[in-house]
Amino acid sequence: MKVLVTGGAGFIGSYVCEQLLSNGHEVIALDNLDPQIHGDDAEWPEYMPESDSITNVIGDVRDRELVRTWVEQVDAIIHLAAAVGVGQSMYKIEHYCSVSVMGTAILLEEILRVKDSIKKLVVASSMSIYGEGSYHNAAGELCYPNGRSTEDMQNGRWELYDANNAEYSPIPVDEEKPLKPDSIYAVNKRDQEEMCLAFGKAYGIPTVAFRMFNVYGARQALSNPYTGVAAIFSSRILQGKAPMIFEDGNQRRDFVHVEDVARAYLYAIEKETANGLALNLGSGNSVSVKEIAETLLTLLRREDLEVEITNKFRDGDIRNCFADISLIQEKLGWSPNYEFTHGVKTMLPWLAAQEGVELSADSMKELMEQGLLK
Where do the domains of the chain lie, and which CATH numbers do they carry? Predict the structure, then answer.
């Protein structure tokens, strides 16, 4: 098939393009080369695949005429384009809603014009739409507790407790969990997911949404202060600085390697068994944020540095969220190939070549100025 990949020059998009090309598909990679990710006056990234079967297009998903031009020429669409950054989304609200929601609306309207020729639509959603993860209470019952209060976190009460002061136990999140997005970014990702699935159902276009957990790997922008925690930690360590951790470092997440993620998108394009579904796309394992930092210090041979536990927190941050991946395994026959330590080792040659500017301090300053970091 001929596939349009929005956000095709991004971290995840570049791997998706490679997977599609390797399986004989043609690719149109559309990307606006956002300066926050690619730098000022960026040119098309060198890491993008070179092939007669890929066409690189610099442009914005909100450019209706441009989107129309390429939608008319393809058989399938993978929609990755979005504004990225949970904290930043809380004060650059118009920008985030414009790129993520209005960009999706324009894309869908242009798909509608040629709907009979579009065989598949796959959209990037996010684990952030769940809000806080799933838990068992002291009686072993499934619970979906609300997030922690500012007062609790100010007092260093990081875990979640029930009305009887019994601690909840985190468990993997499945797709049945109610959605409780707690940032503008998360609301936008929920909107993108629900817009695409509703559109696909209404017009008979097979559509799949992936609720991606924490994606990591080579090519992730180390100079972007709003990128994933693995990249932020790596950037600081490469600058000879200790990784800084919010709360106590024991909050748990699910980290999935970007090559595993790209393979899932390929499966969604080529298989019909997940149509109409939103699927978790994670590793199925959890790791604490402190363990991530310690693993990176070891692999980057900087045991002389120590993890810095700040005990600061961001209002609205969740404590735990990690994936139950049984549905994607059942529907697409997909399972991850990389566990976390193995996956990080594959990043080392790329990390060693980076000279990125460490900007996490800038992002922390902005969050404090906006009253979001305490």
Answer: 2-369 (3.40.50.720)
Please write the tens of the pLDDT for every residue from 36-82: 888 878 889 999 999 999 999 999 999 999 999 999 999 999 999 99
pLDDT at 348: 85
Is the pLDDT reported for residue 345 higher than 80? Answer: yes
CB 214 within 8 A of CB 228: yes
Query: Among candidates 63, 73, 103, which has minimal Cα distance to 3?
Result: 73
**Helix extents (H) in the chain:** 11-22, 35-38, 64-71, 86-89, 93-96, 103-113, 150-154, 184-203, 229-238, 258-270, 289-299, 326-332, 340-352, 360-369
Cα-Cα end-to-end distance for the chain:
50
CA distance readout (Å), 135 to 160, 172, 287, 328: 9, 8, 16, 21
* Whole-angstrom distance, CA of residue 374 vs CA of residue 153: 9
pLDDT of 236 > 90? The answer is no
Crossing angle of helices 103-113/184-203, nearest 10°?
A: 10
Yes or no: say if 190 and 125 are a contact pair by the CB < 8 Å rule.
yes
pLDDT, tens digit, 9 for 90 and up, residues 82-129: 998 888 899 999 999 999 999 999 999 999 999 999 999 999 999 999
Residue 143 φ then ψ, to 5°:
-140, 150
Q: Is the pLDDT of residue 247 over 90?
A: yes
What is d(CA 43, CA 260) in angstroms, rounded to the nearest whole number?
A: 27
DSSP codes, 284-344: S--EEHHHHHHHHHHHTT-TTS--EE----BTT--SB--B--HHHHHHH----S--HHHHH
Q: Is 285 exposed, middle or buried (0-12, 13-18, 19+ CB in 10 A)?
A: middle
